[in-house]
Specification:
CATH architecture of the largest domain in chain B: 3-Layer(bba) Sandwich
Number of helices of chain A: 5
Oligomer: heterodimer
Strand content of chain B: 15-25%
Strand order of the largest sheet of chain A: 2-1-3-4
Number of domains of chain A: 1
CATH architecture of chain A: 3-Layer(aba) Sandwich
Shape of chain A: globular
Helix content of chain B: 25-40%
Number of strands of chain B: 34
Number of helices of chain B: 18
Chain lengths: 163, 661
Amino acid sequence: MSASDSRELRIVGFLCNWCSYGGADTAGVARFSQPTDLRIIRVPCSGRIDPLFIVRALINGADGVLVSGCHPRDCHYAEGNFYARRRLETLKQFLSATGIDPRRFEYTWVSASEGQRWQHVVTEFTRRIHELGPAPTMSHVSDGAWFDAAAPAAAGQGCPCHG
Amino acid sequence: MRIGVFICHCGSNIAGTVDVVAVAQAAAKFPEVAYATDTMYACSEPGQEAIVQAVKEHQLDGVVVASCTPRMHEPTFRRTVERAGINRYFFEMANIREHVSWIGKNAERNTVKAIELVRMAVEKLRRNRPLIPKRFDVVKRVLVIGGGVAGIQAALDCADGGQEVVLVEREQSIGGKMAKLDKTFPTIDCSSCVLGPKMVDVGQHPKITLHTLAEIESVSGYVGNFQVTIRKKARFVDWSKCTGCGLCMEKCPSRKAPDPFNEGLCTAPSINIPFPQAIPKKAAINPDTCIMKQKGKCGLCAKICPVKCIDFDQQDELVTVDVGAIVVATGYDLFDWHKYPQYGQGRYPDVITSLQYERLLSASGPTGGHIKRPSDGKEPKTVVFIQCVGSRDRSVDRPYCSGFCCMYTAKQAILTKDHIPDSQSYVFYMDIRSPGKGYDEFTRRAMEEYGAQYVRGRVSMIYPKGDQLVVRGADTLAGTQVEVAADLVVLAVGAEAARGAVTLGEKLRVVPDQYGFFVESHPKLKPVETNTAGVFLAGACQGPKDIPASVGQGSAAAAKVLALLSKDQLESDPQVSRVTPARCVGCGKCVQTCPFGAIKLVEDRFGNPKAEVVETVCQGCGICTVTCPQGAIQLEHFTDNQILAEVNALCPPRIRVNYAS
């Protein structure tokens, strides 16, 4: 089943303003059709993307997160994407430890002129997420149980497993 | 907060695949939205006026426009809301055209997506703060990179406009490709007679500082305040003394190296002035071929030089200049035609490039303006021109049209007849592209008055026969195969990005396209601007261009520079990082990561180290915000809370924990 005729999944994109957001615009101007699942959040630089944002999206139930910045050495801010590359790669390695399938997160580099490449990236990533299916939810945990676990943690008392 | 939401139809561009009325209705229910409507063209004058009116009528203090990309009209709408009396940063845009209506065909899904993008924008806007720009001084000097005709024009226009100009050229003389041409189309003007006076003007202009044999080493800073380091390569001649007399050239015993100015058709001495009209007219030593530099003995030029300006120990010199704006005019290079097996890959000396043919035609060229073929110096009677060598050909990854080859081929066919009246020219072409003033008439003249035979078709092979070359190709109009026995074959090689363009682009933060040509800010409306403020493009570095177009762009870039430098101060973008001193622990990580040196550590009144942002230096990348372990430094307009609000708008938290309790 292709991505376009199945149920839409929730994919969040974080794109740097100068290259990848422009690349997505270029793809739009050229009318390169893409799956509709992706929602793009514009940030100035891939170096502005806190791994926390990605994890927050995934914890909140996103089925996939796609990050894209300028090609390495082409950063509008000289070196922002080098920082991004380290942070994102670390996050990717780390995700499996959190129980989140690392295949649900991808980062890539797309320049402002690469509309066609952007179309390819979106189409491929959307297909991957559709193959993985919707992200698993903790449906067996009731809202009350969540609250019982989360409230003491928020109050700084730690979670039960750590005493 | 009272937010107004405006959903743009953009004619049918958005409304065609998005139910804009439904989006407006949905937006009206979002928190703090006081007013939501759809509008035909939000960016038009009535559209903007409607926003201003709505702000007043509904006492709005924030505006969301859902239309095209913010990269296009964010500045437009910011001015609109400012006109309505709101701080311009209480404005957000949802991109429902490039990212929704133009890429998705399913109207239902597009509408849902548009609603969600508007919701994201509303959630972000709710957390915006009013921002006020700071002002900073502008350095009144411009750097022009590249001394071809585009760079020359830009430099002269800027200098005539009263600004100081630093012109940097990689080669020994300015002039670029145009200086190598014999005549120019469609007037058959003498190229060096047109360009020469301009080059002299550059050399003599009191406002222009010229650095040739120089390259850009590094660029830092930002619009209004760039710091540029220029590497002036060792030329082993003291140019402050050299008079350009040329005695050294005559005596130099090393003269085996191919002459780059004459495209390798002849050789040049190791100490050389590239051509008679060179600016600056100074000699330079090529250390790769100089006997003294290679073997440590000779020094004949040093002995003969009447002003004793030879200095074999000269080193590269680094010069640093502060400039307020940069014009990139690095031009193009020729496609390497050796990739084509059918043209002999260099086995036949009488297959030459169009630029080599220009040198053969030129009176200052290696043959003194007499067309003599390279193999035996004979005058060719049959000349075959092959067009589109490295243009419009996907097989060599050059699908674009180089634009000027059709015209210069027609010119060369005309000049061939002028030089050798009993000659016959054949032109193998794909299509004739001559869309310029007087251009089509010119190609017609080549065919009708000068009798050039135009054959529509590609050449499949060239093979030698006697002292001639047989060119075999198709005539697609006649539907036959043709063979022409030629004395000389001229390849109309296409243009490709100048070598080193990509490296230079990295230094300037200007993005090249997939073929290495620099990308302009907007293909229609900002042809000479780049996405880096203060850096402008001129000439063929942006894409293949003929001389008038390059000159036009040079002047256009100069106009942009003069407009920029006419201001004494510029407004800095207030989307910069801000430190909350109470949270800052003075670890200094932000100071280390900032690529612009915009953060420094200062002591507060208790002597504790605290980060402080220099607002006019900060470029607003937000690297520091992610680095800070305390969340003490936040990028204004893109704070953690704002981005997380967007995430939450897309992926609502499954459970709301009241952390405050």
